[in-house]
Amino acid sequence: MAKVIVVTSGKGGVGKTTTSASFASGLALRGNKTVVIDFDVGLRNLDLIMGCERRVVFDIINVINGDAALNRALIKDKHCDNLFVLPASQTRDKDALSLDGVGKIIDELKESFDCIVCDSPAGIEHGAFSAMYYADEALVVTNPEVSSVRDSDRILGILAAKSKRAVEGLEPVKEHLLVTRYNTGRVAAGEMLSVDDIQEILRIPLLGVIPESESVLQASNSGTPAIHLDKSDVAEAYKDLVARFMGEEVPMRFVTAEKASLFKRLFGGR
Amino acid sequence: MSIITTLLDYMRGNEKKNAAVAKERLQIILAHERAGRGGCAPDYLPALQEELLEVIAKYIHIDREKIKVQLEKHGDYDVLELNVTLPENARVG
Predict the structure, then answer these.
(1) Do A149 and B26 touch (CB under 8 A)?
(2) Do A161 and B39 touch (CB under 8 A)?
(3) Distance between CA A23 and CA A9 in Å, rounded?
(4) DSSP helix/strand/coil, B28
């Protein structure tokens, strides 16, 4: 049975698209036939992060309007054979993303894919709503920062009240917390909310922690999802995330700081 | 003197824990927002706040902003929290 997973956050810039790209790639690397859909109509960026921007011909709105068949709009990923990207439209009005239209696309994708990853735009407007409406599970991407945590809480409220599962009285959307841009040093210094703090506030199970890292920028510069960056913390953390999502028990890494030496503490080295 | 104490504080980990402030602020605002989000939000809360305010105003001159009524969930039970900040020289009105 195909799973629909929304990557959402409310707040912008927390790492939804970075996460969608790496999470979808990780699922594909583990043998799941996966499609990742960009719902950010007007501000598409998943194509850049996946490195397929020059191969976009048709987009999700073309498919909804019947201008192109779904399989003509799907772009095959260059790293994984069983991964496809469905880009957002760059020019159309976001209202063209009708709930019915999205539903038809998702139903059609369910016939041939195992995992359908929906990359939500920021905000709680129409685009974000269409991305989460059909979700079976949600990855709530949160930064250890007050505005991000508050917005995540808001999104959790919307998932619980307005998603298709909620409206139809089905089993609720399964929620997972993903903390990104985590800096263990600052947490240890009491300057940053800890994973435990965030979990206590949002009250949803933690699925992963992605450390703050320079490699994320390197990955986006080159159009390679961060999970493919060998030996980087971020790639390891995303692989752990995918393993846990697949039901494996993997201990949390990148949550505690190495004990800083007296020298470092005195002179503020990092 | 201040540099030395700051340094000592830093080494002992006594500096003001900023994250704790963030956590507390979030807990308060989210309890409030969740309560206002419908579903479990008791609709008598604004009326209760209004009536409490009237009673308190009979005895003390008080700023309307200085009284807060909140319902928080702590596991299985709800806690009704009433917070009244009295003015420095409270006088019978």
Answers:
(1) yes
(2) yes
(3) 15
(4) helix
Q: In the structure encoding, which two tokens stand for residue A102, read together?
A: 């999205």
Cα four-point dihedral sign A201, A206, A212, A218: negative
**Would you state the structure tokens that stand for residue A266, as one six-digit string?**
């005195």
Which token pair is B91? 């006088």
CA–CA gap between residue A66 and residue A187 (Å, rounded): 50
- pLDDT tens digits, one per residue of A157-182: 999 999 999 999 999 999 999 999 99
Q: Which residues contact A81 (CB under 8 A, 6 or more apart)?
A: A28
Checking ipTM against 0.85, whether it exceeds it is no
CA separation for the pair A115, A33 (Å, rounded): 6
Q: How far apart are the first and last CA of chain B?
A: 49
pTM over 0.95: no
**Cβ <8 Å between B34 and A153:** yes
DSSP structure string for B69-93? EEEEEETTEEEEEEEE---TT----
| Gap between the Cα atoms of A216 and A170, Å rounded | 37
Checking B38-44 for CB contacts under 8 A at 24+ apart, the result is B38/A161, B39/A161, B40/B73, B42/B71
